[in-house]
Amino acid sequence: MQQRFLQMQNRTKISKNTDLANPQLVYIAKITPEDYYVKRGIHRHQKICEITLIQSGRGYYLIEENQELVQQGDVLIVDTGVLHGEGRVLPSICIGLIFDTKKTHYHLISSHIRPVFHFKSEISRALIAQANVAFNLLESSATQAQHLAANIICQSLLPFIMDHLFIDACLKKTSSVTAQLIKNYLDQHYSEKLQIQEVCQVLSLSQTYADSEFQNNYGLSPVQYLTGRRIGEAQTLLINYPHMLIYDVATAVGYENITYFNRVFKKFCGYSPSKYRNIYREQ
To answer: Where would one find coiled-coil regions in this protein (predicted)?
Structure first.
């Protein structure tokens, strides 16, 4: 994956689109088929909205309580504060934006709307072409190139997408009440020393039933979800806090043994924690 950031001094507010609360480009990430083995864990962004243009393939992304099918031609909108996990990320372009607003979580779309939108192939190709131009411009540190990249995204691509969203479905929770209870408990306590057996005891569930319900609803076991949740938050900490010790990252997401944390992290996403952080530093 290649991820390019707009330099901080070039983040200008776009005043024309007041309905969009002055969007500002933060980064553009380009995921190719070669990046398929790198997994991104379950996480949320406190300040960033992400718009992902799916270039090819077909797969399921976890968005809050639902497994959402995404495929070529789709645009996926993940608002601030929304828990999501891509797992094996499809070839795509992911655009990170922040908005000049006093709201803690600014939403591009209503929380009741399904966050996956399909565009015709010719429109999808045009949107991807625009995003690629902006991505290539970010390779340059020249102010003019940086501003042009931001303008392409904030004044052209984003308004076009928002003006042409076809709301074909309201969001419906596809998971059972039992599966949601398990997931909510894991989300609230993932940073603690936690065993699935303890979760089942607290919720008065047999582990066999809990495993079956969770697997049927989310496509993975409670243990796999807990691992993905912890590693996803660890990835966020590694990216956002470059000087945070690996040991502190491990303990913040529920791992007391740093050796075990390193092993689980590498098995999950293909890199050790330090290597993963260095990749982002280089970018």
So the answer is: none
Cα separations (Å) of 187 from 84, 91, 202?
12, 28, 15
Q: Please give the residue range of the domain that contains residue 129.
A: 2-163
* 110 shares a domain with 233: no
Residue ranges with strand state E in 55-170: 58-63, 66-71, 74-78, 84-85, 87-88, 92-99, 116-118
pLDDT by 10s per residue, the chain, length 283: 677 788 755 555 443 444 566 899 999 999 887 775 567 889 999 889 999 999 999 988 889 888 889 999 999 999 999 999 876 778 999 999 998 766 656 788 888 888 999 999 999 999 999 999 999 999 998 999 999 999 999 999 999 999 988 765 555 566 788 999 999 999 999 999 999 999 999 999 999 999 999 999 888 899 999 999 999 999 999 988 889 999 999 999 999 999 999 999 999 988 999 999 988 776 6
Question: What b/e readout covers 252-276, taking b as 16+ CB neighbours within 10 angstroms?
Answer: ebbbeebeebbebbeebbebebeeb
Domain's final residue, options 163, 191, 225? 163
Query: Which distant-in-sequence residues (6+ apart) come within 8 Å of 5 by Cβ?
Result: 26, 27, 138, 283
Domain tally, the chain: 2
Are 38 and 116 members of one domain?
yes
Q: Are residues 204 and 231 in the same domain?
A: yes
**What are phi and psi for residue 116, nearest 5 degrees?**
-115, 125
Assess whether 219 and 265 both reside in one domain.
yes
Tell me which amino acid residue 160 is.
F
